[in-house]
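In the current project phase, our protein records have gained a structure token line. A sample record follows, to show the layout:
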Amino acid sequence: MKTILVTGSNGLIGSEAVEHFDRQGHRVIGVDNNMRQIFFGTQGDTTWNLNRLKRSTKNFQHVNLDIRDRNALDELFKIQSLRIDCSLRRAAFP
């Protein structure tokens, strides 16, 4: 099993990537902080998609952090002892 890191995992393309790699049997770490809600209000909220992913996947783990926060990313890698085999950046920068 490979470990795949997907940033922007709650969004349209990121969530499709999460589902694809999960179906392939890989461990998927999804990073998303639902920034769309801040920019676009309740219509931009992606919590519904996160909840859908949690229900429909087997090897998906969500991490709520801002990818611009280098310290938070460093902590993620330290805590998880992550060895990333592949990463997909689907997160948009504001």
About this structure: The mean pLDDT is 91. DSSP finds four helices and four strands in the chain.
